[in-house]
Amino acid sequence: MPENLRDLDPGQWSLLFGICEEDGMRLAWAPRADIVDGLLAQTSRKDRHQYLVDHRLEVAEDVEAGLTGVNHPEPLGHVEFAREAVTCVRDGQDAAAQALAGNVIDTDMRQRGHTRMTQPAAGSREAGSGSPTHAKPVHEALAFPRRGAHA
């Protein structure tokens, strides 16, 4: 289970799934737990989007940290592009960040598609446990909020 979601209360899971479904957010591995909690406290899609924009530098930091956990050899070539997208966010270059992140997501989905999302990668292990786990897809860490984007 992603570290940022481990401490959710049982009642928060349905809210989390609903927000992910409605807003198209991916919240596994990033952002950090307190930002996830803050998102869950927002009452509308617009408020959640603004909350992410307000915390965008922290989200970028979390995405960058999460990229170190990409453990499957196939997407490792995409990681550098994803890191460049993080740099663009820090530099206030939102369009460039979205273009890079979108390209990584599109390429990953074209190459691996639905299988990548639902099946564990051969040889993947939960960090430190040795237990099999789903490989961490690069695209799940790349949902950068943009200033001025419509929610």
Could you characterize the architecture of this molecule?
With 151 residues, this protein is mainly alpha-helical. The chain has one domain. Helices cover 55% and strands 0% of the residues. It is built from six helices and no strands. It has helices spanning 12-23, 33-41, 45-54, 56-67, 76-90, 94-118. α4 (56-67) packs antiparallel against α5 (76-90) and α5 runs antiparallel to α6. The chain is globular. Residues 121-139 have low confidence and may be disordered.
Which regions contain 5 or more consecutive residues with pLDDT less than 50?
A: 121-139
Task: Give the % helix.
Answer: 40-55%
- Give, in order, the helices and strands: HHHHHH
**Alpha carbon gyration radius:** 15 Å
Mean pLDDT rating: 80
- Overall shape: it is globular
User: What percentage of the residues does DSSP assign to strands (E)?
Assistant: under 5%
> Which structural class do you get from the secondary structure elements?
mainly alpha
Largest sheet report: none
β-strand number: 0
Distance N to C terminus:
28 Å
How many domain modules? 1
Question: Quick gist of this model?
Answer:
This protein is mostly helical and 151 residues long. Helices cover 55% and strands 0% of the residues.
SSE layout:
Blueprint: H1 12-23, H2 33-41, H3 45-54, H4 56-67, H5 76-90, H6 94-118
Task: Throw out a few tags for this protein.
151 residues, mainly alpha, 6 helices, globular
